[in-house]
Queue: 4 jobs
Job 1
Amino acid sequence: MSGYREQAGKVWIAGAGPGDRELLTVKTARLIKEADVIVYDALISAEILTQIPEQKELIHVGKRSGNHTVPQEEISRILVQEAKKGKKVLRLKGGDPFVFGRGGEEVELLAKEQIPFEVVPGVTSCTAVPAYAGIPVTHRDCASSFHVITGHAQRDGEIRIDFPSLARLGDTLVFLMGLARLGWIAKGLLEAGMKKDTPAAVVENGTTAKQRKVISVLSDIEEKAKEADIQTPAIIIVGEVCAFSESFDWTVKRKLGGRQFLTTRPRQNSSRLAKRLRDLGAQVIEMPSIRTEEILPNPRLEDALARMGERSGEQWLVFTSPIGVSVFFDGLRRRKTDIRKLLGGSAVIKVAAIGSATAAALEEAGIFADLVPEKYNAEELGRILAETADKNSHITILRAEAGSPMLLPPLYKAGIWVEDVALYRTCTEGESRWKEKLTEMLKRGEIDAVAFTSASTVRGFAQMMEGFPLSQIHALCIGEQTEKEAANYHMQTEVALKASMDGMEKLILQKYGIR
Ligand code: SAH
């Protein structure tokens, strides 16, 4: 690396794929976590943007055909300037950075300025968008090559498309940035000798929940696209392979294909539901609306832990959230408290979890809960615990500050010794970075519903979206408390039959799934 200044930053020119979050490469996903500053385009989907850790510096250089918010030269200058500050700069671009992404121009300046850089290829819309529309760009029977053409003007304002050559090739033609000139392109190909009935397709917002397509033939594809009011970003595909689209149309067959949901839990445990929904074909925007903060120092917890090993008889540890479980075990690790020390005394340690998600979190720590109530709520947990626990046992509740008061009365009534220890507090101050983007998406009806898994996530969301008419929100609620809170904000509510992630998934499938 001689010639490069010490301490120099570095730039990664990376592709983010065509929209579906899972088409992000492993490398770009890692760089999103590691970069100091992220410079991104308008084409990057909300599903991907909301993955960006909170403390990252962001620079939006949103650029769309016909609406150049930040000129290309300025973008290149920003990259150089940020790298010179010694930062790791991630330039996040739609699709692949070197396929009509002007990545070449950005690299030009970096090379000239001797800024270290890497190029991270991405999944390009040229092949991915047809694939999601059921169109293989090549096929042994009818297309032995495919050609990617831009419908955008060159630097001098001219568009040069060699229609006679394209028509002669006769294989698959993929046009990017061509929607505005669709009629002109079709006419050019027809005049160059292509048959009127050559299959053609236009695909809008490919790979995302908003994907729409029009399949027809070259002579009327423009008219059909207009009728369907196809908007950018869209790609045009011409060739026999378009005829496969209907029978190969797999995306719409996914149970939640075309659906988009928003989840609001804190990052550490939002992904389980999100993963399942994605598996069923939905796009899921994970946008935490609450934050949790560990209570530190925590003398009550220290005290409770110290005394636990000293006692004999039955001792219960009660967890009421997956976050509580992770805060507790992280705390043990940090204090270098060996789990054997906790369990090894003469006491018989029992563990209770409020619901299946909490029980699953405990399993990850190697503990299978002795008690999980059928119905997820604090009162029920208190009642069952009072019935199950030995009257002389000691119960330590490990949960959030200001947890539900309903848990305690049944235990007091049974005369059981209870200690309520707060491990963490919940702050209803979620991310505000994406409020504007989400507001737009909600207004356009692009988000089918918002999933809430606690009353605090409802409050956090309401606070985050202040000013937005919440009565328009379809709220999917895990249980009655959560629903009550959502109803307080006049949201349109649905509640899961069983208060668990399974219950939430069932509710979503029942309301939004195709049968
Ligand atoms: N570098 C990008 C292309 C940038 S040019 C890539 O490799 O995909 C922008 C054009 O790409 C758009 O005008 C549109 O033609 C196409 N495009 C990008 N994402 C798309 C999507 N999700 N659906 C349809 N077309 C898309």
Job 2
Amino acid sequence: MEEAMENQPTEILLQKYNLDEEQEKKEIIRHYRALLRSLRPKLKRGDKELVRHAFEMAATAHKTMRRKSGEPYIIHPLTVAMICVEEIGLGVRSTICALLHDTVEDTDISLDDVEDEFGTEIARIVDGLTKISNVIDTNTSQQAENFKKILLTLTDDPRVILIKLADRLHNMRTLDHMKREKQLKISSETVWVYAPLAHRMGLYSIKTELEDLSMKYMEPEAYKDIAKKLAETKRERSRYINEFIRPLKEKLEASDLAFEIYGRPKSIHSIWNKIKKKAVFFEEVYDLFAIRVILDSAAEKEKEDCWKVYSLITDEYTPSPERLRDWLSNPKSNGYEALHTTVMGPQGKWVEVQIRSKRMNEIAERGLAAHYKYKEGGGEEDRFDKWFGQIREVLATHDTETVDFLQDFKTSFLAEEIYVYTPKGDVKMLPVGSTALDFAFSIHSAIGTKCIGAKVHHKLVPISHKLRSGDQIEIITSNKQKPSEDWLNLVVTAKAKSKIKDSLREEKRKIADDGKYTLQKKLEGLGAAYKPT
Ligand code: MN
């Protein structure tokens, strides 16, 4: 839903905002042409006409509407479509949906109209976009219900969420025109739901921008303070980055690798998080930037080349052994692949270096859409499908009425992940904070409910033991074991939580049945008849 609309006759608005109608028409056409230009490489026969048709339909429907900024409303869907194409990498169908995304909710156009003109596929996506209302609203059970809808549309067609993210991004970019109260509400919903979703879909730059924009409204003082300090220290930082890069550049040039190397500042939001989490001052945050090496390597050589670069870098600077992250061998489930290392740079400063190929970089920046592009033809297992499958499973079994559903879901599916191994060496992905008990439930609910402990790297640990990436876990079970109420505090995954609750309910029913039986026996002994109520 678009919050920033008004419904007033055009002439009044033109006077009110002192606008020139001709000027506005030109502006709209300019947006439309720019959209077509960036879509061009993706257009097949007949597509251009379809996009034009969607644009005209939306423009007519929104004709008398304006955003809070005074802009003609149609600029919003046009910009959302542009974000879909340019920043997310979506194609023609999604563009059409983006152009129409607010029509069914806010204008006379019905879903049937959309279906008649563009077919069922597009109508389904527009329907999904219409159904997602604000998550943070009135009461908690309504929140859970809205969030569940988001998840259902996500697993039904991920494009719905991608377009929704583009919509949210544009609304956040233009939030200045809203009232303070609304700014706070939309911002908190953005950090709470949309930024983690963007992250989980692999859209790193959109996630970062959403977080920074939310912070700008929710914590204006801290935001301004960090932005100012970043600007003040920029020169000094560039000098340091150049000094750090110089010897690496020489080595890379001497090798036969085609590369790009540069320093990138970290986001204001992530710096702020670090300041809060570590209770330090801005001056003490060492990783205000990261160095990035992007390689132009052939598909079959990219992994080898990344390690070659790693070796060149660590010949120059000493790496911190516990900060090596190998997402080449084990990509994150949002598709992210790269090699990260932190090395000791000049003046005794730790510096993070990220190494990846051009292909990996595109996936890192565009996430899901780029991932699908590269997947075509490749027989690689699909992490997104796996993730969607897990979400579906939880939605099907989880008691979504409960208030903790939202939190459970967030920790289960939107958190960072760790990789752990079964005794046979199969890899399992679990959210950060998972315990041995979570792992047991991830294998099978029957193993979870009978779990009495585990062996991690052959060492005995309790069921509450928190796992770390790389752990190999063997679960120990006993037929005498039964879940208890406090188990709910030992797990973080939604699957484990719902299975424990199921089995507690089952247990209560059994006790009640046993009780009835004993009572019946006693009453019979007294010569009385037992009547069930
Ligand atoms: Mn919108």
Job 3
Amino acid sequence: MIKISPSMLSCDFSKIGSEAEEISKSGADMLHLDVMDGHFVPNITFGAPVIKSIRHTSDIVFDVHLMISEPLKYAEDFVKAGADIVTFHVECDSDIKETIEKIKSLSCKVGLSVKPETPIEAVFPYLDQIDMVLVMTVEPGFGGQSFMYDQMEKISLLKEKIRETGKTIDIQVDGGINDETVSVAAKAGANVFVAGSAVFGGDYKERISSLRNRATAE
Ligand code: DX5
Ligand code: ZN
């Protein structure tokens, strides 16, 4: 199933609550919330209190992307703040299995992400326990970067591996997604599309529907 997850990193932070509400009324399936700690990535965004403060604006799925070094230490804060799915990086400093188990024990879905230089095989040992794999299509840290076409091969490999498991696992792409690249990623096998600048740079409803139509056409 195709899902569009606008990234709040590109919203107007002075009115993040009403931006979240407007996105959820504009046909989005999820709301992507980028948490950066200035250590795992060279940028700092927001933490659990900010997410908690906008939870009341809608019941849309909160798709929390943790770009932090120690997800195990903070996972519970994000689930309590209202995350429906918590995605963390396989390159982090926490124990991966323990972090997955922690998030699941809180009745929250789990995603595991790979940075562009990490082979997709790094997530294979965990496929049985997770709900989503996020294949980064830019170096994590900033919005507005260019899509890395060379990541598509990883998606095809992952899709094949998921088929072997017989499980339903979403494949998410994040970074540089626009009307052109959404088609490329969908063709490769992705089904969840994060888009920051492409959504917030125009009319939200029109942008989300255009991305959805293009992904569905593949
Ligand atoms: C980057 C973040 C992305 C970012 C995408 O590290 O994970 O979610 O907001 O922004 P765009 O869609 O502008 O590339
Ligand atoms: Zn993200």
Job 4
Amino acid sequence: MKNNEYDIPYHVAIILDGNGRWAKKRGLKRSLGHKAGFENLKELSSYIFDKGVKILSVFAFSTENFKREKEEVDYLMDLLVTKFKTLIDKNKNIKIVFSGKREDLSKEVINAINEIEEITKECDSKIFNICFNYGGKLDIVEATKKIVDDVGKGLIKKDDIDENLFGKYLYNSIPDIDLLIRTSGEFRISNFMLFQSAYSEMYFPKILFPDFKPKDFDKALEEYNKRDRRFGGIKKDK
Ligand code: IPE
Ligand code: IPE
Ligand code: MG
């Protein structure tokens, strides 16, 4: 989609990283970094959707993040239960969906997730995909199990399985990521959406997530617009 001078990516994904270091720099507890990160996410996601982005995926908690201290994990869970509802913006017609393994989460967390999804389920203009207790490898493994089940039940045939059908079995059937941003200066994916990032343009700003503001997102868009997306083909005419 064109927005004045820019090509606006259809699907943007952000690995929200650097909350802990943001807090440490200020002599604060890590949890206060997560609080600041969440407040930033609210502002930033709203700005990103206003720019015309149709799908925004964010990595909020990985399956591996359970390795952290209980106090920090509890704080992140509590943030979801008490604050994530404030991300709902029905005026913008945004459907919120969650991707990740729900079975390992507490009843309170699962209820909050279900409630947010229920409230926004009829919204059909944009999608806010929140990856929570999410692992890219696990997503692929669980999709494979569901496919095997459906083949066993005769619902699909082995020969029906292609990239398109496989994508539909992932936690949420969402098109590929166009622009993938990871804040905080780490140059890795950390088990984020592996299947959907096959051809994403990657952008790794050094900024810690609570400091990543709309103007920084605009810089990411500028950079995205300089990229030549070839998808294995030959340079496209701009
Ligand atoms: C990202 O910030 C948020 C989560 C992983 C939940 P971090 O908590 O990883 O922050 P750093 O990387 O320690 O600075
Ligand atoms: C990735 O960040 C997960 C989220 C942002 C939720 P981490 O901080 O957990 O990743 P590593 O440990 O640096 O790879
Ligand atoms: Mg981190």
